[in-house]
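Assemble and predict.
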Amino acid sequence: MEVKILTEHYGKEEFRSLNGYRKFLGYETLAKALKMQPQAIIDEVKASGLRGRGGAGFPTGMKWGFLPKNGETRYLLCNADEGEPGTFKDRMMMERAPHQLIEGMIISAFAIGSPKSYIYVRGEYDFPISCLEQAIKEAYDAGLLGKNIMGSGFDHDMDVYKGAGAYICGEETGMISSLEGKKGQPKLKPPFPAIQGYLKKPTIVNNVETLAAVTYIIRDGASTYKKYGTEKSTGTKLFSLSGNIVKPGNYEVPLGFPIIDLIYKLGGGMHPGRKLKAVIPGGSSAPVLTCAEVEKATLDYECLSGLGTMLGSGAVIVIDDSQCMVDLLGVLTHFYHHESCGQCTPCREGTGWLNKILHSILEGRGRLQDIDLLIKVADNMKGKTICALSDAAALPVLSFVSKFRDEFEFYVREGRSKVKGKSYAEMHH
Amino acid sequence: MFQFSNECREEIRKELGRYETKESAIIRCLYISQRENKGWINSEIILALSKEMNIPESKINEVFKFYTMFNQKPVGKYHIQVCTNISCALNGSRELAEHICGELKLKSGEISSDGRFTVSKVECLGSCGTAPMMQVNDKYFENLTAESAMNILRGMK
């Protein structure tokens, strides 16, 4: 069932303000951390096994360990660009508990020796931005940000950076380009941001949930944190449950939690009369799982990667038996085509062709060989570009087509959806 | 010739000093410009902003044209953005968008004859658990039905 560590006090309105947050021991962990050796904090985070909660799942402590061991100015950048379709957990965290993020960030900044951090928030998140700006102001007024924080001698400044609507800015080097006042185009790695990031300075980019979790690792110790989860996927994580489900929402569960329990025990199951057909387990970029696969799937990095998909951002999208997979894939190909930054040819052209071919099928102009053409184009987009968007666009296509091929073939032959019995025009106009 | 109000110029000046480099202020300054020009930006505004920020127009244009939240064409007083990405699509958002367009007698991207509304179909807005949804200017409206969406819009004068 749910294990509420990060979200324990989310139901309380007062938790959003500094005074309310302090009632629940807020900023006490910061006081503890500021008395520790920075390296001891990094070691504790390493020992906790915490992995990045934004999508890639990279071990956080290891990422911090890549920073050069010299006095060069380094930046901490919080990734709050939450754009992976299906994901809405960071938004809730910023709205309900802005100080929880700020405390985690100050502790992390102290650990890595950073004098300045930014929270990069997607531009559409107007309300979360106002919550953060208010909380940062409160923190400055209380001496929790700025010079000599809590008398420790540690100085740290924090600001919110507002994005302007580009999925690609959630990619860490795209985010850095955007923060520098450019198009949000990703940069070739190496050099990795920890070596050369914002303004060519060492930069650590961590997701909202990752940074918030740091506080609890330092508060309770790595060994307590590791009590939850599996050996390689430690701790709890927020899962955004959406789609065809009775009780959509964010649920915090230990990693390793069965998807089926998330859907039926926490999410209230399917709508009356509907059956589970498929689940996208980690945001729109994660390959889809069939109903049969879902039964054995648990929400941890190893299990989902063993099933050929990924935990990603923790967005579990539930699809019921009333849905047409050809139609849904059209939604995704349109998205990736729209969001490709245009920098690398395989992605710029590939996302366009995938979307064109898919829509020609949807509009009844498809040929049977177009189904294999989709696979061929998608295969040619994998591992050939600067960032992972191209792969993210290819994977849904490959999984939808291979697992629901009969629906694609039916659509091509009949010019209408096998499930809905209707053409695209009849479905949507 | 477009000119910024003194208030605006003061806001821009503050943004210019907010980050390590003034280029980082381009996005915020474009938001200020868009707000000042009733929701959209044209080349005349880019030129004025370029002078105000002392940054070449090409650099500002690069940012302006890359991000979807900057409108390159005029929009209605209320810009309705309906998410049509996957979780919303699973909950009828495409039908909702069509319904809104039909009721307002608009096609996606057009401005209503009274200048009040523009409807756009957009990508995921992070409101997947409260689908379907729309953003009107800066505000989210969630868990919509065809009826509740129209009630909200009818209240916007």
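The domain at 239-320 of chain A is CATH 3.10.20.600 (Ubiquitin-like (UB roll)).
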